[in-house]
Design brief:
Layout: E1 5-11, H1 18-26, E2 33-39, H2 46-55, E3 61-66, H3 73-83, E4 88-91, E5 97-98, H4 102-113, E6 117-123, E7 140-141, H5 144-152, E8 163-166, H6 167-172, H7 185-195, E9 199-208, H8 216-219, H9 222-241, H10 250-269, H11 273-280, H12 301-309, H13 314-332
C-alpha cells in the first residue's frame, strides 16, 4: 500500500488563490493523500471556499483545523504537523500550486533512496527567485556531514515547500517552526540538515511558486524584520552550541558567519544606524568555541575580514563593520 502523505496548507486571507491551490492537490496522481487545512483566522472567505471544494469531492481525506486567534504561518504549520496522520508531510503555501505528478514522484524517490528528506525544483512566472534554486547535481547525500555542507553551499531552496519529509524524522528531532517571526525558513532548514543522514534531490520542477504581493514578507515593518532575524541568528547559535562535535566543522562556521553577515547587512540596508550601533555591540557574543573565529586562511576572504572585528576594541567595532558592509554594497552595485 502506498504510504500516506499529509499535505499541510496554512490559510490566511487567500480567497483569490485557495481554490486553485486545493484543486492542484485534488489533481495529484498519487492516491494516498491527506489534506490538512489550518485556518489561521483570516477575515475573508478562504475557509468557506475550501470547505465547499472539499465537501464536494471524495478523492482524498481532509481535516480543517481552526486556530482561535491568528498565530502566523509557523504556528499553522506546527499545528498541521502535530495532527498529521501521514508517514510523510509536505508543506504547501496556500497561494502556490503543485504539478500533478509532484507527490507521486517525490514518494517514489523517497522509497528508492530511503531519504528522510526529498527535495524538488520549483518554478515561477515572476522574476522573484524566492528561497533559491536546487543547485546540487547529485541524486543523494548519504552522511550528516554532506547534509550540513549542502546548507553551507546553498545547494537547495531553504523554503519549507518543495520538500517531502518523514514525519517521524521531524518529531523525533523536535524540528518545528519558530513561531512569531518571519524568515523562519533558514533556521528550520538548518535544523533539518543538522539532523539528517540522507537527503535526496529530484531535478524536476514539481512546485509552482506564486509571488504574493500581499504576503507577510511584503508588509513587514523594519523593526519586526530586524527582530526576527536576530531571533533566527540566535537559533543558529544555540543549535551549534549544543553540538560540540561540530564546532571544528568549517561548513558550520561558514553557515553561522553567513547568518551574522546577513543580520548586520540587513540592518545597514534598512538604513537604521542607531540600531546598527546598538546591535553591533552584541557581535562578540555571537561566537562559539571554533578555531575558525581566528583568522584562518582556509575561510573565505570576506569572512576573514569579519573575524578581525572579534579582535578589535569594542569602540572600533562599529566603524569597522559598517565600513566593510558599505564597501561590499558599493562593490555589488
Amino acid at each position: 500500500m502506498n504510504k500516506k502523505v499529509s499535505i499541510i496548507i496554512p490559510v490566511y486571507n487567500v480567497e483569490q488563490y485557495i481554490e486553485s491551490c486545493i484543486n492542484s492537490v485534488l489533481q495529484q496522481t498519487y492516491n494516498n493523500i491527506e489534506l490538512i487545512i489550518v485556518d489561521d483566522k483570516g477575515k475573508d472567505n478562504s475557509i468557506p471556499i475550501a470547505q465547499t471544494i472539499l465537501e464536494n469531492q471524495n478523492r482524498i481525506s481532509y481535516k480543517i483545523l481552526n486556530h482561535k486567534t491568528n498565530k502566523g504561518v509557523s504556528a499553522a504549520r506546527n499545528t498541521g504537523l502535530l495532527e498529521a496522520a501521514g508517514e510523510y508531510v509536505f508543506f504547501l503555501d496556500s497561494d502556490d500550486l503543485l504539478i500533478p505528478t509532484c507527490i507521486e514522484k517525490l514518494v517514489n524517490k523517497a522509497n528508492e533512496t530511503n531519504a528522510e528528506i526529498v527535495m524538488c525544483k520549483h518554478h515561477s512566472d515572476e522574476s522573484n527567485n524566492y528561497g533559491g534554486q536546487l543547485l546540487f547535481s547529485k541524486e543523494i547525500l548519504t552522511t550528516n556531514a554532506e547534509c550540513i555542507k549542502s546548507f553551507a553551499m546553498s545547494w537547495f531552496n531553504v523554503a519549507p515547500w518543495c520538500k517531502l519529509i518523514k514525519k517521524e524524522f521531524l518529531l523525533d528531532n523536535n524540528i518545528f517552526f519558530k513561531e512569531g517571526i518571519i524568515n523562519e525558513d533558514a533556521p528550520w532548514s538548518f535544523q533539518l540538515c543538522l539532523n539528517a543522514q540522507r537527503i535526496a534531490f529530484l531535478q524536476e520542477d514539481l512546485y509552482y511558486y506564486r509571488y504574493n504581493s500581499n504576503s507577510i514578507m511584503s508588509k513587514s515593518k523594519k523593526q519586526y524584520v530586524i527582530q526576527s532575524n536576530e531571533i533566527a541568528l540566535n537559533i543558529f547559535l544555540n543549535e551549534i552550541i549544543k553540538r560540540p562535535e561540530i564546532w571544528e566543522n568549517i561548513d558550520v562556521y561558514i553557515i553561522f558567519m553567513r547568518q551574522i553577515i546577513i543580520f548586520y547587512t540587513l540592518i545597514y540596508k534598512l538604513g537604521n544606524i542607531k540600531t546598527f550601533f546598538k546591535k553591533i555591540k552584541l557581535l562578540k557574543t555571537y561566537k562559539y568555541n571554533s578555531p575558525y573565529f581566528k583568522n584562518y586562511h582556509q575561510i573565505p576572504l570576506y569572512y576573514q575580514l569579519w573575524n578581525k572585528a572579534y579582535h578589535l576594541p569594542t569602540i572600533l567595532t562599529f566603524t569597522y563593520c559598517y565600513t566593510i558592509i558599505l564597501l561590499q554594497d558599493l562593490k555589488s552595485k
